[in-house]
Amino acid sequence: MRGFTVVAAFLLALALMPASAQISRPRGFLIERDRFASLQDQLTNRLRATRTDQKAYVAYVVKLVRQGKIQRSLVVAIERYAIRRNESFPFPFFERAMKYECGKRGVNLPPVKQFASTKLPATR
After folding, report:
1. How far apart, in whole angstroms, are the C-alpha atoms of residue 89 and residue 95?
2. Total tally of structural domains belonging to the chain
3. pTM here?
4. pLDDT tens per residue across span 34-52
5. In a domain, 51, yes or no
6. 20 pLDDT higher than 80
7. Does residue 112 belong to any structural domain of this protein?
8. 77 CB contacts (<8 Å, ≥6 apart)?
């Protein structure tokens, strides 16, 4: 019974101790600087693009957005659509919807397979 009271006293003392942060940041680290993820990081993470060809495809889509060939809002809307279609593996839905929407707008978007064996396609 004495062992139980010692353990109970230890747990009570542990519970009453003030909490401290577990993640330490280096000095001068500003949270505001990295507050939002870039479009490429957002697409890679939310679409679960894990293979190198999928990451290259996402990089190419972001490159088209930077060049002004497709709108950022369109890419984000298609990303959300793909996640709604299949939350576990949304990338194939994103690829198909992007191909369709870019085709309607006159932008040639190659399939992911092309990114597996080649470098990024040249854009005009």
Report:
1. 12
2. 1
3. 0.66
4. 567 899 999 999 999 999 9
5. yes
6. no
7. no
8. none
